[in-house]
Amino acid sequence: MEEAILTTKIRKWGNSYGIMIPKGFLREKKIANGEEINVIITKKHKENVLRETFGKIKFKKSTEEMMKETDKELYNE
Length: 77
Description:
Shape: elongated
Number of domains: 1
Order of helices and strands: EEHHH
Structural class: alpha+beta
Strand order of the largest sheet: 1-2
Distance between the termini: 59 Å
Mean pLDDT: 84
Strand content: 5-15%
Number of strands: 2
């Protein structure tokens, strides 16, 4: 079965907690009522995307080289 990602909130039901899965989502993924599924829970991060990717991007030139080129363009024109 293909994987699907759904963002939802945990809700209190009596003495337990549960998640709601929209009917349309289940229909789209062809999941029937009572069918057993696997659930992987990850906490949603509220951090900025830039903070997550900072330092992961590799450039062909060093930061120093890029700064020198930028300075040339800004101050020589």
